[in-house]
Amino acid sequence: MDGGGTAAAVGVRIHHPRRLPDFLQSVNLKYVKLGYHYLISNLLTLCLIPLMVAIFIQVSEMNPDDVFQLWLHLKYNLVSVIICSVFIVFGSTVYIMTRPRSVYLVDYSCYRAPEHLKAPFHVFMEHSSLTGDFDESSLEFQRKILERSGLGDETYVPEAMHFLPPRPSMQAAREEAEQVMFGALDNLFANTKLKTKDIGILVVNCSLFNPTPSLSAMIVNKYKLRGNIKSFNLGGMGCSAGVIAIDLAKDLLQFNRNTYAVVVSTENITQNWYFGNKKSMLIPNCLFRVGGAAVLLSNKSTDRRRSKYKLVHVVRTHKGADDKAFRCVYQEQDDAGKTGVSLSKDLMAIAGGALKTNITTLGPLVLPISEQLLFFTALMLKKVVNKNLKAYIPDFKLAFSHFCIHAGGRAVIDELEKNLELLPTHVEASRMTLHRFGNTSSSSIWYELAYLEAKGRVRKGHKVWQIAFGSGFKCNSAVWVALRRVKPSRNGPWEDCIDKYPVAIAP
Questions:
Q1: Model confidence at 17: pLDDT above 50
Q2: Stated pTM of the model
Q3: Rounded to an integer, what distance in angstroms lies between the CA atom of residue 203 and that of residue 113?
Q4: Which pLDDT does position 368 carry in this prediction?
């Protein structure tokens, strides 16, 4: 269970304020080059389009005499015709064989826990006090975290945490995992009418709970999936693992024809609640809540018509080579031997660096040419003419219609809104998801997308940017394009409460 960049932000707000670095101050040229490399890698497709348009225009202007003269020319130049035909056939074959397969998001489902698992602030603090594990300083610290966290009174904690004393156990953790994963999958299968035997790929990500048999094996057993399924279980990868799981499924779909991939993103709280008094390890208790999502992907062209989105780009950034970044979100034991996730005071700065790298690489892939030219020109002037010149930060609002920023906590949402110059409506889905469901780790970006759909805001052609942070330290982005006007699926997480949102968040 990783605090993303946000958990630290809440804790740091209480002590010494630390903010994300100002992206206007520095941009690393090598990541711009990487983004342009991705752009150039698709150059063949970009060049073929204007060539085909030019040929079409030329042919449309030909009269019958021109056609007759062309026929006479070809009739007496058979060798040239054969050579040209061979080149055309060869080029077409190479293009068809090497182009990436389209990956469609058919549908997805977010888990909504039962009412009796809700944990209002007063209940949370009362239980924390009655456990006898926290001293007065720790209780006051948790109270301040909750007040400034952006969470509402309707978030959920697992069954084991509602007992006095709490009952964290392996069995309770398995039950939590089953409730979340099976709840999301049951709804997904009901909505899509998918036969489970048609699933060829399964990817599950959960950071802190990795039992034997694995979570993916639990799903295979529950739904009796086929014996040759390609099954993967990702652990320890934090809140950004949902995008990593999508990326893995996308790669697998490139080499497995006409099949479905199911991605399940969740986190497990039961065995990872911290019962000590170290401040940096108490923040996850206050922010993380029960949640999970199941996503159905397809590479079948016949599924395009019924799918909601098409996957356009995935950009992953990993800062794990740096020791500070590697240890900024770290599971360990405190001095009393109690296990928890410790959040470094450098977390905000490290998150900012990872974000800057990620968006610098993503920019050339998604931004209009006008913005790219402005950005690149300003960067060259900074490198060659004046190093103190502010780098031009592109307007990502020109590239995306919607933003799904990982709902890790209030402070990072604030900082991204400021540094990317977003409007309040662009971060509304993130704030409301945090308020209603808390930090559900890697699945939060799906609750945010579900919010946008429930509000009726996603239309055909709209691009959605999902961005998440995770331990390691990682910043990952996924870009989707809507294939139609997207309506919310049945039994969605916002179905019974969307009319109440947005709500005002106390300062």
A1: no
A2: 0.85
A3: 22
A4: 84
Q: How far apart are CA 348 and CA 107, in angstroms?
A: 34
The rounded distance, in Å, linking the Cα atoms of 34 and 316 is: 12
- Please tell me the number of Cα atoms within 13 Å of 357 on its side-chain side: 17
Pairing of strands 309-318, 104-110: antiparallel
* pLDDT tens-digit readout, 358-385: 988 898 899 888 787 777 787 778 777 7
Nearest to 319 by CA among 469, 501, 131, 487: 469
Measured between alpha carbons, how far is residue 268 from residues 128, 202, 215, 285, 319 in Å?
19, 19, 11, 12, 25
Region 475-492: mean pLDDT is: 97
Pick from 3-7, 177-181, 197-201, 394-398: least confident: 3-7
For the record, the structure tokens of 162 come out as: 């509602």
Query: In terms of Cα–Cα distance, which of 266, 272, 247 is closest to 445?
Result: 266
Contact 267, 440 (CB under 8 A): yes
- 174 exposed, middle or buried (CB, 10 Å; 0-12, 13-18, 19+)? middle
Give the contacts of 56 (CB within 8 A, at least 6 positions apart): none
- Whose CA is closest to 110, among 502, 504, 490? 490
State the residue for tokens 């604030």. Answer: 414
In this structure, are residues 331 and 364 in contact, taking their beta carbons and an 8 Å threshold? Answer: no
Calpha distance 29→99 (Å, rounded): 28
Q: How confident is the model at residue 24 (pLDDT cuts 50, 70, 90)?
A: very low
Biggest alpha carbon distance in the chain? 97
Query: Which two structure tokens, joined as six digits, stand for 235?
Result: 């652990």
- List active site positions: 239, 318, 402, 406, 435, 439
Residue with tokens 């982005």: 477
- Read out DSSP for 37-57? HHHHTTHHHHHHHHHHHHHHH
Q: Answer whether residue 82 shows pLDDT above 90.
A: no
Q: Which two tokens stand for residue 182?
A: 């099976």
Q: Examine the pLDDT at 23 and tell me if it is beyond 60.
A: no
Dihedral over Cα of 75, 77, 83, 87: its sign: negative
H helical segments located in 25-169: 29-40, 43-60, 64-75, 78-98, 121-131, 136-148
As a residue count, the chain comes to: 507
Name 461's bridge partners: none
